[in-house]
Automatic annotation (TrEMBL):
Record keywords: Hydrolase, Metalloprotease, Protease, Signal, Zinc
InterPro entries: ENP1_M14_CPD (IPR034274), Peptidase_M14 (IPR000834)
Comp. bias (Low complexity): 156-171
Biased composition (Gly residues): 46-76, 83-98, 105-129, 172-190
Region Disordered, residue ranges: 46-195
Domain named Peptidase M14: residues: 388-681
Family membership noted in the UniProt record: Belongs to the peptidase M14 family.
Catalytic site positions: E648 (proton donor/acceptor)
Pfam families registered for this protein in UniProt: Peptidase_M14 (PF00246)
The protein's name in its UniProt record: Peptidase M14 domain-containing protein
PROSITE patterns membership: PEPTIDASE_M14
Signal sequence region: 1-23
Phylogenetic lineage: Bacteria, Bacillati, Bacillota, Bacilli, Bacillales
Superkingdom in the source lineage: Bacteria
Gene source species: Gottfriedia luciferensis
Amino acid sequence: MKKGFTSLIVLVLIFSMFKDVFAETKAADKWVVTLKPTELTIQTGTGGTTGGATTGEIAGGTTGGTTTGEITGGTTGSTTTGGTTGGTTTGETTGGTTGSTTTGGTTGGTTTGETTGGTTGGTTTGGTTDGTTTGETTGGTTGSTTTGGTTGGTTTGETTEGTTGSATTGEVTGGTTGGTTTGETTGGTTGTTTTTITIPANVKLKVDKEENDLYYVTYNGNAGTILKSAVRNATPWEIYPTAKVFKVTNDTPLLLNENGKLVNRGTVKANTVFSKIGVKDQYLMIQYSNQTAYIDKNKTIPLPNGTLPVISIVTQPVKITAGVAVRNSKIVLPRDNKPTMVNIPAKQKIVIDSAYSSYYVVKVGGLKGLIPKADISLKTYNYVDPNGDYSYEELTADLQELNAWYPGFTKVEKIGKSVDGRSLYAFKLGTGKTEISINGSHHAREHMTTNVIMEMLDQYASAYEKNTKISGFDVRKTLSQTSIYFVPMVNPDGVMLVQKGASSAKNPNQVIKLNNGSKNFKAWKANVRGVDLNRQYPAGWSTISGNKSKPGPDNYKGTKALSEPEAKALYDFTNKHSFKNTVAYHSSGNIIFWHYNQTGTQMARDKAIATKLSKQTGYSLVAPAKGGGGGYKDWYVAAKKRPGFTIEISPYVGNKPVPNSYFSSIMKKNLPVGLILANEK
């Protein structure tokens, strides 16, 4: 029983010692930021530390003015004596438990003695006065006596009982004075003084502790309290502004500075760790290839003691370091599971550091990342391989690649879809307001015309970029005045039938049936529905000669003009523009068609341009004749009253594609054709 009682006492004592700790929540490394100018409240005491052991003694001598003595102390056994004065003597004692005597001496004025004490075992005596003597004792449990001395006025004695836990003693003795002597003794817990300092807005403060609705902080060496409502929690970057390594917390845009504006050029993946090279406004700056990329700081956290992962890979040097993404791709960390660091869109230019296996190595945020070689085009100024059968897949890839390298003066546009759903592309080259157009592969077996067009625009774009000339033409100057729109493959379904066979079609059995049961499509001219696209345009369509009665490999004009989506797409596209002139490339005959019922000055103008084309290519001009119709050139000349030409690029080879061995000489003849037409007034 005794042991249990002792344990209880110990627990009570421990709780008493640590009750203040239990009553507050200590914030470890907690920082806050002021929301607006905020008052810091500072408390200073007028009394000493209660329960201490402070002794103060003041002795005033003879003065001709005013003597003021103030003692703040703990338990004292001292005496404060005001000497003879010619003015006013004031004595103030703050004390606790007293065992002393406070005596007011003989005064010629008014003597006031006030004693506030704890438990008192002493005596308070008011001396003999000619004026008024007031004695006031405020104490706890009191075993003392308060005596008012002999007075010529009024003697007042007052005892107030209370309970005090202080231990401060003050004693004041006033001597003979010629003025007024005042003595004040205050015991118990001492009083405090409150001052405030204004802290500006957006100041970061470390929280020493928190209690209820207050934070205890220190500002410029001043310790005090502020209201919690006046601050917000500091962000991690406000706490650790100098941290170099950081982690991305959420997927966030990768921003690049383009012409003074931050543009989204990818997505940085969450949980990726990088090293920053700087800070600008709300963004962290990291190395990205040979550029600086920007990441939203709010989507990251600093790692003040963090380090970047060290991953060793054996790389190989590369001769060409400039690359561009030809499709959407990703940069991965060279680990076994290859986590994604950054997703990048097509057309994103990068600088290659080295090569590793089937990847190129690029530098990102202090790390080496990997990007698939298949997704990157190296800067060669020569992006089209026009040799051999040039497929629809190559076409779409090359158009994107060219646009990726030359975004400032090229544009890829979808103008429609084929019967089987393949996109029909137009490619704009140049920045001029005047426009011309060149198209190819209306007829499937004449797909070398696509090779010619793609090589033409590849070389034109390269010359524009490098500011060089082709056949004496200033390419950049020409294309800054006149833009050329190329539609390289009007009939992609038909071209793929010729190159790949029936398996390229959505309905192989149907096309085999249209081909009279044959799986050999080398002679095929029509689209996948068996309609000849160059007999689809509304110019003499109803009177076209040599028309076949049903769909098949060639010469069937369809049930009506523009019934086929490919012809309709080119028709609509042409009507949306105001092309100054046009060329439709075909492949057989080494001849140029230029006439369709035009007369007078229009005819003379068109023949003059045709003659220039003939001189360049060596192809013969077809003499004017009545009839014809249904072709793209026919419709353009009739509807637009502007020069239009059908150029047959090869000697007659029969009902089959032009042999690939012819390409080099054909290309040499036709390379400047677009520039000749672009320079026509």
